[in-house]
């Protein structure tokens, strides 16, 4: 089951540049929360701070409190944090030298998990959850992950994240590199996933946020301007800047 | 040349443009032939001169004393294999390790220093490396040895492998590393099992290039492995190598030794090609298992 996220006073930097300014946000468990905003507003940085991927960039750092379930993210080993908070990236990024099976099993095997039978089960379960199982079950070992289509690759990456059984799934514009059909498949999938996981999704596409998310946060220049139920934010936003953005006046 | 579909359209392309296209294409072909020609010429010449002298005796016997006909290079062939084994055991892990450091960690001043040192080491004449190893190992041990020859060749392999590994790792897209880190895989594991594995084809090519380059080296072996007319499998004794034997025989006044030098050169080429091919086959099979 998914758990909630508590963010308090989160600041993120790139060198001396302050990219996120004192963000406070509460993400509800087993819900989809969308993060929207114009390019460069800090929305990707925000989700990358939640699983401490932000600090893998040279000179980047973050400070503040992020509590996921009972774990204080910034007091724990980043490796352990990332195991519990999965991430799907903008561009599908399967491991090019591994088979479909190898890709999904990678998070388990490379973390020292050895039980073959259990890995087999988790691979099958994850591929089914990611709605890819029927398309690839006959060539799990034969085909390389990179030989799939873009949309399939992205679902493979989702399956790969699910296989390590995280509590939270972060998605950084997961459909922005995909065609409309693949996009709708991913959206359908996100809808299914919230039964088991808490999902935070960054998106450029406001219709997408409206379609998949219960809650939406609007970021602008490193600040969280408004955070509300999706319905409310798209119909009666309380901040002028939010209204300007969603009505297409800028961004 | 340009009779392709849409010929009517091709007609419209001006004569001057077609001439330029034609000239550029032929220039590229000519350049490719010019690069291949010397290689083929050398190989053909060695084959013609040497093939007749490669026989069972040559492959199974040790050298005969000066003046006596016959004998072979069996001991030198085994010696070359042993020395190159030592060289690879030193050069490959150190080179790859150094390349990993440069690509994944070496962004600061130490990285620049290591990179610069590797480039300088790459340019040091091989005989100087032989002398350095002579000073470091041979003088202290007070005798020549196959091992010291392997060390000299291994040192020569390091910079080539290190820079090739670095280049190949830098070509691995960062999103692949992020994918692994995002799964909660530790950095060292990501580097070894994901980045290095993704780059493995290029890294292996780099290792093979370094191996082929040192396999024919003679100068660094002159003061280290020294050469040996007799069977020797002990690495702490003077050891024969095909390249050394070819060098000695080619400079000798005897026709029979000249003949054997050509045969030795041919055998050396065959050994290198066989080793490179064997590694290629082994790794492509090994990689295919978990791969495609």
Give an overview of the whole structure.
The complex is a heterodimer of chains A (251) and B (292). By secondary structure, chain A is of the alpha/beta class. Chain A contains 10 helices and 10 strands. Chain A has one domain (5-246): Rossmann fold, CATH 3.40.50. In chain A, α3 (100-109) crosses α4 and α4 (116-129) packs across α6. Chain B is mainly α and 292 residues long. Chain B has helices at residues 7-12, 15-51, 56-60, 74-105, 109-123, 126-141, 146-171, 174-182, 187-198, 200-215, 219-222, 242-251, 255-290. In chain B, α2 (15-51) packs across α13 (255-290), α4 packs across α12 (242-251) and α10 packs antiparallel against α13 (255-290). The interface between A and B is medium-sized, with 34 and 24 residues.
Task: Write the SSE topology.
The complex is a heterodimer of chains A (about 250) and B (about 290).
Chain A: E1 5-14, E2 17-27, E3 32-36, H1 43-50, E4 60-68, E5 71-72, H2 78-84, E6 85-88, H3 100-109, H4 116-129, H5 133-136, H6 150-163, E7 168-172, H7 180-193, E8 198-202, H8 206-212, E9 215-220, E10 223-229, H9 230-235, H10 240-246
Parallel strand pairs in A: 3-8, 3-9, 6-7, 7-8
Antiparallel strand pairs in A: 1-2, 1-4, 4-5, 9-10
Helix pairs in contact in A: 3-4, 3-6, 4-6, 6-7
Chain B: H1 7-12, H2 15-51, H3 56-60, H4 74-105, H5 109-123, H6 126-141, H7 146-171, H8 174-182, H9 187-198, H10 200-215, H11 219-222, H12 242-251, H13 255-290
Which class best fits the helix and strand makeup of chain A? alpha/beta
- The spatial strand order of the largest sheet of chain A comes to 6-7-8-3-9-10
Compute the number of strand runs of chain A.
Answer: 10
Outline of chain A: globular
Q: Please work out how many helical segments of chain A DSSP would assign.
A: 10
What does this entry show, briefly?
The complex is a heterodimer of chains A (about 250) and B (about 290). Chain A is of the alpha/beta class.
Keywords:
heterodimer, A: 251 residues, alpha/beta, six-stranded mixed sheet, four-stranded antiparallel sheet, globular, B: 292 residues, mainly alpha, MetI-like fold, 13 helices
């Amino acid at each position: 089951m998914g758990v909630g996220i508590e963010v308090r006073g989160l600041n993120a930097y790139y060198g001396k540049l302050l990219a996120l300014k004192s963000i406070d946000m509460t993400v509800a468990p087993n819900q989809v929360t969308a993060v929207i905003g114009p390019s460069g507003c800090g929305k990707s940085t925000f989700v990358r701070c939640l699983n401490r991927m932000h600090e893998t960039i040279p000179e980047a750092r973050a400070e503040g409190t992020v509590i996921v379930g009972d774990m204080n993210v910034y007091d724990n080993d980043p490796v352990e944090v990332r195991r519990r908070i999965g991430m799907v990236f903008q561009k599908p990024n399967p491991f090019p030298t591994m088979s479909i099976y190898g890709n999904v099993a990678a998070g388990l095997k490379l973390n020292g998990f050895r039980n073959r039978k259990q890995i087999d089960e988790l691979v099958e379960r994850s591929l089914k959850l990611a709605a890819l199982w029927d398309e690839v079950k006959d060539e799990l070992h034969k085909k390389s992950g990179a030989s799939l289509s873009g949309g399939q690759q992205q679902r493979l990456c989702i399956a790969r994240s699910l296989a390590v059984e995280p509590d939270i799934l972060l998605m950084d514009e997961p459909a922005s590199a995909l065609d409309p059909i693949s996009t709708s498949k991913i959206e359908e999938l996100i809808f299914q996933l919230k039964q088991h996981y808490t999902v935070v999704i960054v998106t450029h596409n406001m219709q997408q946020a409206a379609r998949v998310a219960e809650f939406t946060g609007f970021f602008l220049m490193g600040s969280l301007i408004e955070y509300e139920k999706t319905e409310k934010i798209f119909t009666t936003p309380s901040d002028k800047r939010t209204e300007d953005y969603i009505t297409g006046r800028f961004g | 040349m340009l009779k392709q579909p849409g010929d009517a359209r091709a007609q419209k392309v001006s004569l001057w443009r077609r001439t330029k296209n034609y000239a550029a294409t032929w220039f590229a072909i000519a350049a490719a032939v010019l690069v291949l020609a010397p290689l083929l010429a050398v190989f053909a010449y060695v084959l013609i001169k040497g093939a007749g002298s490669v026989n069972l005796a040559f492959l199974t016997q040790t050298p005969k004393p000066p003046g006596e006909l016959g004998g072979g290079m069996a001991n030198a062939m085994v010696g070359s294999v042993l020395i190159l084994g030592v060289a690879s055991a030193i050069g490959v892990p150190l080179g790859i390790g150094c390349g990993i450091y440069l690509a994944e960690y070496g962004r600061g001043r130490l990285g620049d220093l290591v990179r610069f040192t590797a480039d300088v080491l790459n340019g040091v004449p091989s005989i100087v490396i032989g002398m350095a190893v002579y000073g470091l190992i041979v003088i202290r041990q007070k005798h020549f040895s196959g091992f010291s020859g392997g060390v000299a060749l291994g040192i020569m392999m390091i910079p080539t492998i290190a820079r090739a590994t670095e280049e190949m790792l830098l070509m691995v897209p960062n999103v692949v590393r992020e994918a692994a880190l995002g799964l909660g895989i530790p950095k060292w594991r990501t580097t070894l099992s994901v980045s290095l594995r993704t780059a493995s084809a290029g890294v292996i090519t780099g290792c093979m290039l370094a191996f082929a380059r040192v396999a024919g080296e003679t100068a660094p072996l002159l003061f280290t492995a020294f050469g040996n007319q007799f069977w020797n499998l002990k690495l702490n004794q003077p050891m024969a190598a095909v390249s050394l034997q070819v060098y000695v025989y080619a400079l000798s006044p005897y026709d029979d030794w000249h003949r054997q030098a050509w045969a030795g050169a041919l055998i050396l080429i065959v050994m290198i090609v066989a080793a490179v091919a064997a590694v290629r086959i082994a790794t492509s099979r090994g990689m295919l298992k978990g791969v495609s």
